Amino acid sequence: MQWLEKINEALSYIEENLDGEISYERAASIVGCSTYHFQRMFSFMVGIPLSEYIRRRRLTKAAFDLQQGDKVLTVALRYGYESPTSFNRAFQNQNGLSPSAARKKGNLLKAFPRITFTLSIKGAEEMNYRIEDKESFTVVGFSLKLEKDSDSSFDIIPKFWDAKEKSGDIARLCTHMGQEPKGLLGVCCTGDQDKDWMYYIAIASDKPVPQGLESHTIDSTTWAIFSGRGAMPKAIQDLQKQIMSEWLPSSDYVFGTAPDIERYITEDTTDQEFEVWIPIQPKK
């Protein structure tokens, strides 16, 4: 339960700073994980990106302030909008009426309450996993630099895979396969001190790096390895959500510092066998 308490503490930090600057790095440090893992975990658990949650909460607070008689420009600046025009557009998209209209009693507004995480014992679906300590190994493949906003990753990473598949690069990469862990890997690295987020389409290899490919060494660590099978990408996304929302909160572990890995074992995307590797360390 301590892990959930840390997440709720991070949400309290966000709530206290809705009318100021919110640092994703600060929120993630409260939980004890990288900003990438924090944003990704939030999206899986809540069903919306962290940035969208913050936007909805700010506009909800803005509506309360307007009803208390605050001026539109004052409220717009308070919640991070550079102009009344951008504030008006965002407010109207959420509420279906203008900020000026929201000041009048009797008009219908939408409120998005603060989220609080609690442990829900579902037990509807079993999870197959194992804990393994692995020595360091090197992956080689193609890299993609990620934005410091994991929400965008859900869009650009699939496009990266599509482009490499169509170009024949993935087929050529697979000809070098042979080292454990075998299979095509999707590796997300957040770098030292949460810098330089990179994503690799790669294979494990202990051979010299072939021309045109890049390499990354993954340090020895402890992994929670979850196995799954089904139609992609829904099957792996469902498993990741279950890991974040059910297994991790009730386990004796927190996120480690190594990359997280998707291992694709078979090729048929309509019924693909895969694994999700989560770096873990014991709770303090």
Q: Would you kindly provide a written description of the structure presented here, covering whatever features stand out?
A:
This protein is of the alpha+beta class and 284 residues long. The chain has two domains: 2-102, Homeodomain-like (Arc Repressor Mutant, subunit A); 128-282, Multidrug-efflux Transporter 1 Regulator Bmrr, Chain A (Alpha-Beta Barrel). It contains ten helices and nine strands. It has helices spanning 2-16, 24-31, 35-46, 50-67, 72-78, 84-95, 99-102, 150-167, 169-174, 234-250; strands at residues 128-134, 137-145, 184-189, 198-204, 214-218, 221-230, 253-255, 260-264, 272-282. Strands 1, 2, 3, 4, 5, 6, 7, 8 and 9 form a nine-stranded antiparallel β-sheet that branches. α1 runs antiparallel to α2 (24-31), α3 crosses α10 and α5 crosses α6 (84-95). It starts with a helix and ends with a strand.
Fold topology:
Elements (H helix, E strand, L loop, with lengths): L1 H15 L7 H8 L3 H12 L3 H18 L4 H7 L5 H12 L3 H4 L25 E7 L2 E9 L4 H18 L1 H6 L9 E6 L8 E7 L9 E5 L2 E10 L3 H17 L2 E3 L4 E5 L7 E11 L2
Helix pairs in contact: 1-2, 2-3, 3-10, 5-6
- Secondary-structure element series: HHHHHHHEEHHEEEEHEEE
Write down the CATH topology of the largest domain.
Answer: Multidrug-efflux Transporter 1 Regulator Bmrr, Chain A
The number of distinct structural domains comes to 2
- The count of β-strands is 9
